[in-house]
Amino acid sequence: MGDDARGDLGDRAGGDVGIAVVGVAGRMGQMLARAVIEAPGARLSGVTVRPGHPWVGRDLGEAMGGAALGVTVEDDPLEVFARSQAALDFTTPEATVIHSELAAQARLTHVVGTTGLEATHLARLRAAGWHAVVVRAGNMSVGVNLLTELTRRVAATLGPEYDIEIIEMHHRHKVDAPSGTALMLGAAAAEGRGVALTEMSERGRDGITGARRVGAIGFASLRGGDVVGEHQVILAGPGERLTLGHIATDRMLFARGAVRAALWGQGREPGEYDMLDVLGLRGG
Ligand code: NAD
Q1: What percent of the chain has pLDDT over 90?
Q2: Do 154 and 241 belong to one domain?
């Protein structure tokens, strides 16, 4: 996409960071494109959808139901990555690992918001991180990342006699559970306690479960309506209960965080990072 083809977006400075959005037709993809266009220091260098998607070849603005943006929707990430310095990826685990290999070859900053990644996907992202910057977070908002750090500290302070339960609610279309954010909060609680989340998590309780295991970290997922994302960390102890929480009301919050991560990644050493690194919130 040449600058002259970008209509009223065409007057961006040539030194701006070229940021691509993959999976642009998705709920988050559309937000990400808007966030790149609005961000100072950033330029939308290209957008993709999965091959065969009806948006291929169309103008992005028109495909999203608005005015033309002069950005054509493509289906080959390799071509788009070749003219970009960063790629924002909120798609599916299968698509994300393919994008991560292409992004590593092109030495792009790969910002991964996709959740539901399993060990095999994570191993492939780790390999990509040897060659390029990968910033991955189950939640890109400042508030949730602060909550993560608070959870780690509170869990470190209160002993296992405080039962930790993590509750999340999301819109009816969400396909994975618990949410990436809930798992992030669980991992922070486990880290605070010096235990492995994989050994302590209790998920999907049903029927005669027996009494709660001492030190377990429980998860409960609610789905319905158009809820953007709500999380609560409950620490229930003898005679008192602490509740830490976060409510997201606008997906642009995550999109702006992703753009911030893409800009932050420029010129960094290859490696795997998260939003605590980007936001400077990583505690000692
Ligand atoms: P969505 O289903 O609306 O969008 C996903 C998009 O990815 C779809 O448009 C799909 O066509 C596209 N896609 C699939 N395979 C592709 C491929 N090979 N190439 C290009 N595009 C492809 O879902 P959503 O609500 O936008 O969420 C997407 C992901 O982001 C989920 O994993 C969700 O949990 C996560 N998410 C993360 C955060 C965060 O802050 N980290 C915030 C919100 C959502």
Answers
A1: 92
A2: yes
pLDDT tens column, 225-241: 999 999 999 999 999 99
pLDDT at 12: 41
DSSP string, 5-59: GGGGGTT--TTSEEEEEESTTSHHHHHHHHHHHHSTTEEEEEEE--TT-TTTTSB
> Ligand 1: distance of its center to the CA of 214 in Å?
36
249 sits in which H/E element: none
Q: What is the CATH number of the domain that holds 271?
A: 3.40.50.720
State the distance from the centre of ligand 1 to the C-alpha of 137, rounded, in angstroms.
13
* DSSP element (H, E) containing 113: none
Q: Which domain holds residue 165?
A: 142-248
Residue 246 is a catalytic residue: no
Query: Domain holding 198: CATH number?
Result: 3.30.360.10
Contact indicator for 128, 104 with CB cutoff of 8 Å: yes
Greatest C-alpha distance within the chain: 66
Q: Is the pLDDT of residue 2 over 70?
A: no
Across residues 271-277, what is the average pLDDT?
96
Q: Which of 88, 90, 136 to mutate to test the pocket of ligand 1 (most atoms within 8 A of CB)?
A: 90
Same domain, 104 and 220: no
For the residues 93-104, what does the mean pLDDT come to? 98
* Residue 14 pLDDT: 56
CA of 250 to the centre of ligand 1 (A): 16
